[in-house]
Amino acid sequence: MTAFVLGVDAGGTSTRALAVGADGSVLGSGRAGGANPNSHPPAEAVANLAAAIRAAAEFPGRASACVIGMAGTAKLTDPEVAALFDRTLRDVGLDRVLILTDAEVAFASATDAPDGTVLIAGTGSIAGRIRKRRMVATEGGYGWLLGDEGSGFWLGREAVRATLAALGHDGELGPLATAVLAEADVDATDRRWAWRRLIAVTNAEPPIRLARFAPLVAVDDPAAADIVERGADLLVRTALATREPGEDTPVVLVGSVLGPGTEVGERVRAKLSGLEVRTSSDGVYGAAWLAAVEAFGEAAARRAG
């Protein structure tokens, strides 16, 4: 019977699972809907988690270990939710399960180093200090109301603020303001009306929807460049706040804002040029490798994502 482990990346949008053999080969994969119990009803989240795991392990045998990287682990502090997850995982035949944060598996997907820093910037932002492959300290991650500096939310909000400032003064509207008004479906013929309308449109939506304006900072415009620069500074400051003086460990970048080729991502890489900077390839591979380490030890074969 084949020895294997399971790695799972349980996100808010989708859940992916990999069954990996002792030699690092992928034996099966599964995909289902989101399994973040903060953004989905817990019953729906565990159903999606179970579906992805079952699809990945459609062959005889029991996994030697399973590591689940989950967004929304805080919800498991609720005893009822934790019990629901425990029952579901036992029902799918798992008895050796380690649930980690999505940040921890993302770090492991990019490096086999036990220590370092993970910086995440998608809709929100957070940095973590990693020691022995576990996150032991954080900076940021407070959500849109209290923080998330440099995140997609922050970038989008700053893009709208810059547009409102431009509408409030004479002069031609630049590419950023034009793009924001088009995204918001606001006619700029009457600038005072457009100013009021943009405020009304953005306030009529959930605040986190401001993140939809974040990609617009890629336009060639001094106002957009200023937002990119400030956002990158804030993210670098967040990352460095988790590091000890003189620390020589990798920094792993995660999330859509920090992807290779993105304006903010490239500025962050430039500002961290004195450090070893890596990009998370795919959290599910990090989860699978961490499961292999749990089952087979530090010499476990590693598969690149």
UniProtKB/TrEMBL annotation:
Gene3D superfamilies: 3.30.420.40. Residues 6-291 form the ATPase BadF/BadG/BcrA/BcrD type domain. It holds the Pfam family BcrAD_BadFG. SUPFAM superfamilies: Actin-like ATPase domain (SSF53067). It comes from the Bacteria. This is N-acetylglucosamine kinase-like BadF-type ATPase.
